[in-house]
Amino acid sequence: MSLAVALLCGALGSAVALLATRQRWSEGTATVAGGPFPLTAKGSDVTGVPAALAIVGLAALVAVFAVRRTGRFMVAGLLALSGAGTVAAALLGVSDSAALDEKAAQASGDTSATVQALTHTAWPYVAAVGGALILLAGLLALRYGRLWPGMSGRYERGGAPRPRRKAPTADPDRPEEIWKALDRGEDPTGA
Description:
This protein is 55% helix and 12% strand. The chain is mainly α. The protein has a three-stranded antiparallel sheet. A hairpin with a 2-residue loop joins strand 1 and strand 2. Helix 1 packs antiparallel against helix 3, helix 3 packs antiparallel against helix 4 and helix 3 runs parallel beside helix 6.
């Protein structure tokens, strides 16, 4: 049960955080010669951290199943940290006006211009919710990950060397053995 919840939370949280960073987070106006000029900033303009951490979280979610024991614990910790970082970056982006101030400076040609009538949308909070879902997936992986199935170790090489098999004794009269002797530079007809 915890496995399904963690997978759902991690995948959904990453998708929500990535979607939210592509939406409009803030808007305002800049004063230019012709009057007020409307400006908008997407989440990726404000900060790229939530999107980057959502991708890290999604990769860590997949990697949780590829590793075992200590590796799983470390990857689950990375998953939880990426969720917490996504939440923090999204919440810090709520009141950030630097992206719009930069756009106002470009629109007006005045490097000291700032945006007026600044308003924010709910998308930064949606990104924070996505981060919270990633964080929940990480916490579930930290708590219950040792009980989850891992990838098969069927084809992994063991630590101990395998005993060598004895080569079957070859019949020197078989045609393939004659060709092998020729390849080695031996004369198969000589006694």
